[in-house]
């Protein structure tokens, strides 16, 4: 039995408040239970050097924990003078995921930068960031009134893990810290996986467990797509 | 006539939501109109090296703009690898101001670190940070149930400026960007100034204008003390 | 048909030269075809701060590309003054993988640092690094003559991908750069997965393709275990 | 009674040696008693990116303490790899102050960089830097023989404080370290304040004390203008 | 008597394996006994800013120790975030030495970057790097089929020192660490010195010892030129 | 004929003003013609980690150019966030040279840090720094009234070069920039060389030229010893 009373395959309450910020071209506040992330999309008419003159756009992401989003204060990366390995890993994952939702040709020579700032962390910050970032990016693209909409599909993600031998969906921090296996699944709403990261630090896992985690995640991600669509299509 | 319709000596709507974060020892979300800052207080049983063994505590502050708190995206300092001069200047001011509210001897060999993260910027972020930081710190101190309360007094701040020859209180961003003179006043509720910073980049100012700005600020800060007291004493 | 003439499920020639360096406690040169990595294990009688006094050891890894290991020169990270996100991501993966091979309690309060320096890069440098790092670490542990051998099992890894719709094992650089899906599998010789990273940047993938990649990888990793055993047990 | 025997409103001996350096376009060595600062002005035909094409110039300043300018050696910022918050704060103040003395339009698309290097520190290094920087800049501008002299007025500064309840002008280090209130006043010779920074770390202050400090400073700054004029107009 | 059994004026076995790397325009693995360095030359059609438009080329070098090239692990400079003073000193020496071998006018507006990565260190890594770098650069130049060969001459180097009062050629690590005097000589094959660095940290030296070291080095460098010629002219 | 009218083997006017700074334990301003360097010695009761508990002291040096010490402004290293290779090379040379003048055992577990800050640069700044640093260190040691004076001997240095085929002593900047060969000699007053650095970037040199440079330098350094002795023994 989970402390929260949730069923093993049950998501926490997912809420997305669109247009959370006045200045960003697109933005939202996303929460998965107590995990809260501000996602903001910025559109720039300038691409990274490797794309200059290519008529192709780019999507990139940055991720950060507010120092007291965490139980024990996390030192501010601006003070340390460098981003940690974990931050690099997460923001690369968010960027890769978002690029699967967009036709970079239709975007044209523009860059969308997504900022995911975690206000409160209770497990699953990277998957919540992907879900919110897709909405922020979608809102920004909508405002630009493209002839050919570059947003080809939606992208969403959820975490899943094995705790005391049971597969559990959408781990909160207390579950995550004792999980034997920890996995993140990213999918698009046209049906298909775009990223799996599964890690067994305390134990190994087998393909049966992987399948079960994938199945839990597939169904949960469908529910997240519904919430995203309500905002972007509503 | 101000675009917002405010009188020259009128504050924007000031709102403080206490206990905004689950994990911090003390926290709030403070807003001055559209300017919004999350303030979080962390208590550590460890002081900076220069105070080791002194039986005396310390208060320090860190300040940051979320990249899309601003109209044009502000580059993330963690990515640049260093904090800007402006950030250094502001967090030193916040720290200094807070230390005037506390008996560091009564605090004992502990450090309180205040994080001020600006979610949305519309002028006056440093003065809003001081007002919110005082509440976050006050809430954290309250929880520690000291015999001798180290919180000696409250501290609050407001900005004031000269725009088109008129003294205006609590400038928003559009007023701030065309101000001839820009000033910040920090006061304690036991009556007294703890910091004045007044700058005339586009024009000089005289002592009459300074007095008028000081008077506007004094009255406004009294109102802020009322809001702080309601939360800390209520 | 692959340019190299290999079958879709065929590994490149894997060769491990043990004791490649005079000074390291354990070392090897591993090659997967033209990909060549020097792996060196250093044993230190000192653990990271979070483990001090815990009677538990730690394994960490560092990874680097020599500037001309790559076709186009890669700028030296020491000159740039920071490691890239890709480097952080890879060295975290290597460290996590190695820790699944060792009882950190039996290791005692010691740290083994593994350096993986890529001399020549032709695809699969991170998986080759894991395979070689396991040997370097195994040789270092062997020399220490523990009563209870902390090396519980072997760990190895291989890359797999989808190119033009076909699942191919152990991609070289030319295959990797046009792959629709790119995956890395890490397993232990006691049977079980310890990490999957599967990414579809140009296309999505389904669970059937994932299963096929996993099956190809499982068989290939068995072959790598044989080569590791010959050195460590021979 | 002050240790130095000075009256409360008495400046230390102020001396300016113009053209102290062979290579700089303008330079001087300024001393306020034992505080000594080398000020050098460099003229560059290039402005910061935000002013390109604007036909407008810029003035910026850098400030540094030589390691043994101070009683206890100050670590070299080039070795630490970053400038401290204090340095940032001071060089921003110097730059702002100097820009009030110059018509940036008349300067044209040029940048004047002022270097203030403190050879010996005995209190008041930032205000001495402003006074010397104005001379170095004025000498550099003079050499350029503009049709419309961009130097509109002189700028000078002095520190003032409250020690043991008395207002004292131009604090030396021993007075500064026990001051209850510490203030810096920057004025232009056309009459007018350009910056006030007043801080009470050990105590608060009231508007009467502020007025007295302002009055002491106004008179002292008049004397500094005389010395500046002798060099620049002489 | 030297532990290795070598005569005082005897070089260690010098071996150069050309074309050691697949991707570099020119490369080799050079060994002086147990000291082993990978040298790689990269040709870029772009020069440093100070040479733009000059029709003149440039040669620069970078040097690094692999962490376990040394007996005690050397911390990775990319992790520390900066290159050490020793590294800076060595790579400047290598660059300077190589520039004496090349007509930068005949090279044209191109830059050759030489990477010297020490795989194993047993004394004399900087002089081995110079000898190997000359070969890597020579091979890269050869491939470019210039009308006027910019390689004017060869350059090579050797270390020499005074140990227990005797002049010894080509010190290994154990000799180097107890040497009273440590010197490096760089010469060109057209006859002539291009660099001498002689240091007596534990003792001084006189001109007689300097002459003897220079004579030993001159003869040894002639032998190295023979090995270089065999590869570059063979 | 030299522009300055000096004979080929003639030093510029060398002047040393002792006790130039109030706060340093030992200090001087040294000038070689227009080259001026402030040298300051700091004594700390703390040694670098590798000497803890060894009862042995250490001497280290730091070197910096003031931005406008040079004809074209040199960017401030504190702003760039790192010291250049040239700075590293020079401060290592100064430190090494000074350690030959001192018995580190007699110094005891103390560190003397020497700061050499170049106020004005006109060639020969590193050799002037060594000469001045020896005086600053000597003055600091004198004040400490050791039973066994750890200052065993004096150390001094001078530059020499080949310009248009002639050997010239003590090059100024204009001579230095067209020199074919550039050399620095460091000697102790007990007779003996402690460091030679000779470089031919535009041309090679032979042992005859080296001997002539060494002879010029030997005689000039004798004169510098006289000036040092007058201050330290006078």
Q: What does this molecule look like?
A:
The structure is a homohexamer of 234-residue chains. The first copy, chain A, has 234 residues and is an alpha+beta fold. Chain A has six helices and nine strands; from the N terminus they run ββββαααβαββαββα. Chain A has helices at residues 77-80, 85-99, 104-107, 125-144, 173-176, 207-233, and strands at residues 14-18, 26-32, 35-44, 58-65, 111-120, 155-163, 166-169, 181-188, 193-199. In chain A, a hairpin with a 2-residue loop joins strand 2 (26-32) and strand 3 (35-44). In chain A, helix 2 (85-99) packs across helix 4 (125-144) and helix 4 (125-144) runs parallel beside helix 6. The model of chain A has no long low-confidence stretch (mean pLDDT 96). At the C-E interface, strand 3, helix 1 and strand 5 of C face strand 3, helix 1 and strand 5 of E. Strand 9 (193-199) of chain E pairs antiparallel with strand 9 of chain F.
């Amino acid at each position: 039995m989970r402390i929260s009373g949730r069923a093993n395959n049950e998501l926490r309450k997912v809420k997305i408040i669109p247009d959370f910020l006045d200045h960003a071209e697109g933005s939202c506040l996303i929460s998965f239970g107590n995990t809260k992330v501000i996602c903001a999309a910025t559109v720039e008419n300038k691409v990274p050097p490797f794309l200059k003159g290519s008529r192709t756009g780019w999507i990139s992401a940055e991720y950060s924990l507010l120092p007291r989003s965490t139980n024990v204060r996390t030192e501010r990366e601006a003070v340390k003078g460098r981003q940690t390995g974990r931050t690099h890993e997460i923001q690369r994952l968010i960027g890769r995921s978002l690029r699967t939702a967009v036709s970079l040709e239709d975007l044209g020579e523009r860059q969308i930068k997504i900022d995911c700032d975690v206000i409160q962390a209770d497990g699953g910050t990277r998957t919540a960031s992907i879900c919110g970032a897709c909405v922020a990016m979608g809102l920004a693209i909508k405002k630009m009134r493209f002839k050919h909409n570059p947003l080809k599909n939606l992208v969403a993600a959820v975490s899943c893990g094995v705790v005391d031998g049971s597969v559990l969906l959408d781990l909160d921090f207390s579950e995550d810290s004792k999980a034997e296996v920890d996995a993140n699944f990213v999918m698009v709403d046209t049906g298909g996986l775009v990223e799996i990261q599964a890690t067994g630090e305390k134990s190994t896992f087998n393909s049966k467990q992987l399948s079960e985690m994938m199945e839990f995640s597939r169904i949960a991600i469908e529910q997240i797509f519904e919430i995203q669509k309500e905002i972007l299509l509503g």
